[in-house]
Prior knowledge:
Blueprint: H1 2-9, H2 16-19, E1 44-46, H3 59-65, H4 79-90, E2 92-96, E3 99-102, E4 113-119, E5 128-133, E6 138-143, H5 148-155, E7 165-172, H6 173-180, H7 184-205, E8 208-213, H8 218-225, E9 232-242
GO molecular function: oxidoreductase activity
InterPro entries: Bacteriocin_Proc_Enz (IPR052544), Nitroreductase (IPR029479), Nitroreductase-like (IPR000415), SagB-type_dehydrogenase (IPR020051)
Protein name: SagB/ThcOx family dehydrogenase
Amino acid sequence: MIEKIKEARKAIRPDWTDLYTLKTYRQMKKEEPEKFYHPESQKIIDLLKIFPNIKQKTLTEVIASRRSTRSYKEQALSFEELSYILYETCRVDHIENGITFKTIPTAGATNSGETYIYVNHVEGVESGIYLYIQDKHQLALINNEENLKDKVNQALLRQLRGAALVFYFTHVLPRVEYKYAYVGPKLACLEAGHACQNLSLIAEVIDSGVCAIAAYKQDETDKILKINGDDHFTIYCATLGKKK
């Protein structure tokens, strides 16, 4: 057991000076992985970019009120609230000279992170798994199979508990490994943490709560999202819903 623990620690304490002695894929002029997914989908939803009904709060207010919320009202979010949450959590703000600028830090603008959501209760939006198309502020329907809610809940170790949304922060490791080699997994985890923190604070603006979740069934979750679980897999999850 102790040897496995020690081995696992190495992933979060890489030596940057060793990295300087390597030739990364970028330095070898290998082709850079695509930074965005634009999947084929039977349904693409354009999200709102203006939010007239969202009453803003100060950063001090949302930090003071933020607490992990583990069960929720069975209450739907509005489409405006859904759009607002995604817009502020992890959108691409702009791209300049090939460099991606997001609402969260991303190592060397490699943009390894993707965001999937499970829609459980949102007004006017079909329940299902969606990919957030971050550079277009759209949702693409990925999975609406039968009994999906039960599968989502089982993969979350029964932590759905009335949530309106489930967020899945996934990472495409080749994007960050292209520039940072074996340091990539650590940087991907940091990026997922930044995104989840944004989510936790933005939820407070709409009087909702979030529970960040690291305990879930890895293979089942990746399968639900239809990602390969090899170089693209889930790193972090979170439920979101109206507070009781």
